[in-house]
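Replying to the earlier thread about multi-chain prediction with a worked example.

Input:
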Amino acid sequence: MAVAARTAESAEPILRLRGVGRRFGGLEAVRDVDLDVRPGERRAILGPNGAGKTTLFNVVAGEFPPTSGTIELFNHDVTFMPARMRVGLGLTRTYQTSRLFLGLSVEDNLYLALVGVEGGHLRPVRLPGRDGTLRSQAREIAERIRLQDQLGAPVRNLSHGEQRQLEVGMALAGEPRLMMLDEPAAGLSRAERVQLTEMLLGLEREITLILIEHDMDVALTVAEYVTMMHDGAVIVEGTPAEIRANQLVHDLYLGRGHYERR
Amino acid sequence: MIAGARGRSGLAIVFIGLLAASPLFVSDFFLSAILTKTLWLGIVAASLIFLSGYGNMISLAQTGLYGVAGFVLGNVVAADGGLKVAWDPWVGVILGLVVATVVGLVFGAVASRSEGIYFLMLTLAFGILLFYFWGQVTQLSGFGGINSIQAPGIVSKPRTDPDNLFYICLVVSVAVYALIRYIVRTPFGIALQGIRDEPTRMRALGYNVALHRTLAFGLGAFLAGISGILSVWWNTRIDPGSVGLGRTIDVLVIAIIGGIFWIEGGWLGAFVFTAIDTYSRNIDWLGPRFNTLIGVIFLVIVLVSPGGLIGIWESARGLARRRSGAGAGLPPGAPAERSG
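Result:
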């Protein structure tokens, strides 16, 4: 892992944030964040509730623009680019609370994610060849997230854990270059978390990964580099080992008890 | 959708066959006043169900848009009132549908960025706007409406020889039904359902949600326009009262009685509505209390089955399946368009 991290150091960052801030009226949810993420990196963003992690995610994904600063994605200035245009650059994301199409089947959910990337959103006809390819790709993703037996099931009938798996699957569609996962392990059982960790560790190196995660086992196992946020600002950056050893992080977030158990 | 696609289509074919044979065994009055009216009224209700069930756009402009097609038709063909241009009746049909679709696209573009109650209120405003437009622009109609509108020869005389118009309405209804069933399984239609469920995710996946909604609204206007044309042929006239708030509520009631989540509900609701409307007049003690009666039926249905009459049928099927122990699971590959 150290080797991979060092090669990543030398490459140009694919995501570059400079002085990014986001204000909601009187609340400064994110302030003056600088962030560089290099290709292939596995980055975790940690911080207590209200630290501004999800707001930072939303700004990077284009849900709303920052109120200050600039964002560069794959060498494009995307600061004010609408969310739907960023998919074309290879950015996909998941949501803290699942945003799935509950009235559609698992296969249709993944199919829509693929069509979103591949184009032809407005096509009012079925094309057996093209749709056949897209649907077989959808089934491949379903296999990767272990939902191959639920292809035809309406998503509203899935369990919470299965919906979280599909949430990750939606971000896998269309060969993403940067995946942003917002608390993928939220509400998962221990066994499901182990499965999720294995799947994230098994992701190709072509995919850069940024994840927000409260579960330390998942976050510090998957991540090679950790950004710690508090009150909207980045306070510490480092490897998981450095983060575990950092006294400031302990006081803010981990707590002494958690540390000693390790 | 709990029912498998095959069972659903099979049932639809049985109904269509029964309808196709009905001129053999029903009276002319029933054929025209009940069945033909059910068919054209069902189309405008189906356009509303398409928008609300698949796009989460409850539109109160469908009657107004249906009126656009009807009034344009009335103005450009031989008629008593309007512009009296006396063009070919088929030119009127095409112009009516084109104008209704264009107006629908413009309305859709305005309303597509709002959701829920705001969308509802905007479309209500569109409907009222159209009502007053036709009422106050006397060159085009006025509150007296346009009478004796000429229909193509193929329509024959709906009052004395109802078979032709019945079959036209049947063929068009089947085409509209098949078109909607087809379109909701295309990328456009599946994406529309995605927008219904999670517009935010759809944006993040790269879709232009506002454009998608606008185009769906245009399609809804086109379908409503078809219904407007047929209604003009059936009534031989149109006036602003045909597209007023009362009719708008009627169409909403029809869609909800039938089942707001199933396209078939449009025609089922239209049948129940038309039958009650027609026959309740003959019940002495009921007198002119049609609205009370339909209102009570509406309330009972909303309370008992939010999915309307088709919802009751679907629940019964689900119950029967669970009883028989066959399991309520979906057969693999079955479309999950909507599980009410």
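Confidence is low (pLDDT under 50) at residues 326-340 of chain B.

Feel free to reuse this layout for your own posts.
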